[in-house]
Amino acid sequence: MSHAPLDSSHPDYPLVSRLVKAILNHAGGFDKFAVDVPALLRQAFDEVIDAPRTNRFTLGETEKTEKTYVGTKVEILIRNYLGVAKGRVLDMLVDGVEIDIKNTTGRDWMLPKEVVGRPALLVRSSESTALCDVGIVVCRPEYLRLSKNQDGKGQLLAAQHVNIWWILRQHPYPPNFWEVLSVSDRMEIMSARGGTSRIAALFEKVQGRPISRQQVSALAQQHDYMKRIRRNGGARDILAPKGIALLWGQRDRALIEQLGLGPVTADEFISFRPLKADDVTLLRNAGHID
Fold this sequence. Notes:
Number of helices: 11
Largest sheet: 5 strands, mixed
């Protein structure tokens, strides 16, 4: 079911296995969780970066206070996704148990004193590798390095990571393409004249990889970014003659599945230059390439 469950002889096993099972039930099963939660992380980061309005493209460019807010955003999105209530003290109530949600984009989690002795859902992600970890741990005092200052926050000791039940471990999530593009590619995309040309340059450079609609709208720099994508004056007019199809997860789902390009969510776009004759015919008949 999951990547790294605890051994059944572990003292935390009865509680943690029950919580993992309940969380995966709320999500609609492990396979769904493994697709949806990584996509939520991309959504949280993109909303905080807010490229369309701020002209920033990476999490590193955001203010310190905004980086803190990423944790709140992740908490809200996960709780809503699971459809569970907020706890009286901690972030969510699952199967009658309060659980805290702790997110980090670094190596370690800082745990507030109210979570000591209680379970936490740990989320960790790296924008440079686009890999994430999601696990559950009971924050026993002996697992933590407690700080001496007033706030009483604790840090989970690295040696105690063996007490985490990993639901996802080093699992890919949708990358921020700005992080993975070379500087020269980034400059080339940004120097293209006008939103439509920038979007076409992006989808020519980054093929076979889903790109979220927030990132597309950031490049379009206009409210109706879909206009920049469509035929009749949009990026598809530039890409189709080059044999590159630009597909949308919402409208072109059947084609995406036929071509084996998924998973692509309804909020993502993917470009693809077919090489096989069958794929060329398929996309040409669907009007995606000339």
